[in-house]
Specification:
The protein is α+β, with helices and mostly antiparallel strands. Strand 12 and strand 13 form a beta hairpin. The chain is 48% helix and 15% strand. The N and C termini lie far apart (65 Å). Its EC number is 1.1.1.34. It is an enzyme of class 1 (oxidoreductase). Pathway: Metabolic intermediate biosynthesis; (R)-mevalonate biosynthesis; (R)-mevalonate from acetyl-CoA: step 3/3.
Length: 576
């Protein structure tokens, strides 16, 4: 927790009594709601009963000891006192333990958001609107019969002219593959252009629905190659890479070979934590500063962490970093997210915390759950410095003879090129996290192959490549430092068959049941190790003047352009 020791704080630590008041005002159920009398009066009654019964029994047992009367011989009054003592004890233990038990059983599992929890944070008018969306819509009729009973061509025509909404096909037909086929026909009718080259069969459309894509009409084929083995941290990995750039996989494979023959690479996970930064607004900058001081009080952080952590078995709040822009406050939450990339998980926790803070700061206006200080899918200084997702450093020492035989260059040439290109050249360009040769090439290829969010390649490719001569200038120490690799092995595109197969090839498919979070950490290390291999190979090709020759050999199209044009004309004629 970042703490600011300067400046007066006008918001004090929230006491348990205040927290209880906030919970009551928020309408959340309390343990004491089950009691027939006010909790204060009930507590006093049972405390008096417990100590009175205990005092009476102690007095009676003292008299029995003096008169040598057996203690187990009880009269009616002693039996009644014993019953009262036991009952009072059970009540006191049960009451003070019920909150703990209730919190434990209320912890939700990971996955889709718990709608009941989310609904507690939605204003009443929004809840009413949400309930109206649950009212079943009447089935779509076409030509006097249910939509599914019509021919595909008739449905496609209706979609094309707007009679039937395209987005409703999956729900109305109950067949995702048929819906995609009909929508595809409708698009061809509407645009007058053919989609013959876009594959339709061979994919499970049901696995896409509601998770990966909407308005589906097919899928794009991207070749998947493998590089390796990548010897990383004593383990060998065969790395899948989905790309249409010739020479990329071959180049990365050469880098893996150089690493392998030099004894392998080593990686270190420096930091882990997904971020989400909502923006809130106050009437004055002074009030915004009061919220900042409140969040920077470590005692308040403990309370907020409990509220945040209740939303998931794996989400654990690590930090809240608050900055101001006038009367706007940006709250950057950082949390662990297990094996998931975790954007949904952390967003749910953030929403719950904001609802709690709203009662303490009723004049606070929530502008957006994301205020771009996260920062997601953007090249930003905050990610470059503070990190986001997994922060990894990966290194290897390449033997001089390997640099010469495998990479066809020299240690001194690589060191000089790295300084002039990756460091000085990137600085002149005003690069932000781009002090490397082509980290994004490797990151994008692995992201697409393993079902990651391709757009997060922007910050995940933040990388600085360092090369230094060691061992008297004979060998090369090379490293990549990547502060914001955002990956997961569950959720999103990772559950699609092709992407799951690639994760399985790496040994990180799904969640790690024995050590939650380990699979996603391993995947981040593999990404960094693969980037290291790619940097080594490309830099060597540049130093040796091989880049142009390699791309002319592997990345030039030899297809007959005229034949391609002829096929295009035929496709258009077919549609017409």
């Amino acid at each position: 927790m970042k703490t600011n020791n300067g400046g007066a704080r006008s918001v004090a630590h929230v006491s348990p009594r205040q927290q209880l008041k906030v919970q009551r005002e928020s309408g959340k159920p309390l343990a004491s709601d089950a009691l027939p009398l006010p909790v204060g009066l009930t507590n006093k009654i049972f405390m008096v009963l417990f100590f009175s019964a205990s005092y009476y029994l102690m007095r009676r047992w003292r008299d029995k000891i003096r008169t040598s009367t057996p203690l187990h011989m009880l009269n009616l009054g002693e039996i009644a006192a014993l019953i009262l003592q036991v009952a009072s004890f059970i009540y006191l233990i049960g009451f003070f333990g019920i909150d703990y038990v209730q919190n434990y059983i209320n912890k939700s599992s990971d996955g889709p958001w718990d709608l009941d929890d989310v609904r507690q944070n939605i204003p009443a008018k929004c809840q009413a609107a949400d309930e109206t969306t649950r009212i079943p819509r009447p089935a779509v009729q076409l030509r006097g019969k249910s939509l599914g009973d019509n021919a595909d061509a008739d449905i496609a025509s209706a979609v094309s002219d707007g009679t039937v909404p395209s987005y409703s096909l999956e729900g109305e037909l109950g067949d995702c593959a048929r819906a995609a086929s009909i929508r595809r026909q409708a698009v061809e009718l509407t645009t007058g252009r053919s989609l013959d080259g876009l594959p339709l069969t061979g994919i499970d459309y049901a696995s896409i629905l509601g998770q990966c894509c909407e308005m589906v009409v097919g899928y794009v084929q991207i070749p998947v190659g493998v590089a390796g083995p990548l010897l990383l941290d004593g383990f060998e990995f065969t790395v899948p890479m989905a790309t249409t750039e010739g020479c990329l996989v071959a180049s990365t494979n050469r880098g893996c070979k150089a690493i392998y023959q030099s004894g392998g690479a080593t990686s270190v996970l420096l930091k882990e934590g997904m971020t989400r930064a909502p923006v809130v607004r106050f009437a004055t900058a002074k009030r915004a500063a009061e919220l900042k001081f409140y969040l920077e009080d470590e005692t308040n952080f403990e309370t907020l962490a409990v509220i945040f952590n209740r939303t998931s078995r794996f989400a654990r709040l690590q930090d809240i970093f608050c900055v101001l822009a006038g009367r706007n406050a940006y709250l950057r939450f950082t949390s662990s997210t297990g094996d998931a990339m975790g954007m949904n998980m952390i967003s749910k926790g953030v929403q719950n915390v904001l609802s709690y803070i709203q009662h303490l700061f009723p004049d606070m206006e929530s502008i957006s759950v994301s205020g771009n200080f996260c920062a997601d899918k953007k090249a930003t200084a905050v990610n470059w410095v503070e990190g986001r997702g997994k922060s990894v450093v990966c290194e290897a020492v390449l033997k001089g003879e390997i640099v010469s035989k495998v990479l066809k260059t020299s240690v001194s040439a690589l060191v000089e090129l790295n300084m002039v290109k990756n460091l000085a050249g990137s600085a002149l360009a005003g690069a932000l996290g781009g002090f490397n040769a082509h980290a994004s090439n490797i990151v994008s290829a692995i992201f697409i192959a393993t079902g990651q969010d391709p757009a997060q390649n922007v910050e995940s490719s933040h990388c600085i490549t360092m090369m230094e001569a060691v061992n008297g200038g004979q060998d090369l120490h090379v490293s990549v430092t990547m502060p914001s690799i955002e990956v997961g092995t569950i959720g999103g595109g990772t559950q699609l068959a092709s992407q799951a197969a690639c994760l399985n090839l790496l040994g990180v498919k799904g969640a790690n049941l024995e050590s939650p979070g380990m699979n996603s950490q391993t995947l981040a290390r593999i990404v960094a190790g693969s980037v290291l291999a790619g940097e080594i190979s490309l830099m060597s090709a540049l130093a040796a003047g091989q880049l142009v020759r390699s791309h002319m050999k592997y990345n030039r199209s030899n297809q007959n352009v005229a034949a391609s044009v002829e096929m295009e004309v035929r496709a258009k004629n077919k549609v017409v």
